[in-house]
Amino acid sequence: MKKTIDVVAALIVKDEKVLIAKRSTGDKNALGKWEFPGGKVDPGESERHAIEREIKEELDLEINAKEFIINNVYEYPTHIVNLKLYRCEYISGDMHLHDHSDYQFVDLEELLDFDLAPADIPIAKHVQKMNFTCKFH
Length: 137
Prior knowledge:
Blueprint: E1 4-14, E2 17-23, E3 34-35, E4 38-40, H1 47-59, E5 62-75, E6 80-92, E7 100-106, H2 121-129, H3 132-135
């Protein structure tokens, strides 16, 4: 039986554009793929704390996890990922990449033009349908 890994991801919006990053370390199934940045939830850790910690470790940004948006369970060849997206508010910090080779703030309609990690694709489709004007201001 495959192990299920709980993973949290951040939806960070700036000027109605969404942050995605290109993975350069970690899971071989996601290497070179674009994703909503985030990472694994440690045992005993809350999801909100995990996403705030992971974004600090990976991007050097301080964020505040605001609300759970959606999750997607995706089966990779070696394991299952339960990816949970949280709307996050930027607090402070300058972007420094540690686990990614690139990042971009992209328009919603361009989101699926990127080579996204498989677990992120259904989440990206959901994000495209969200009403940013109501949700993020």
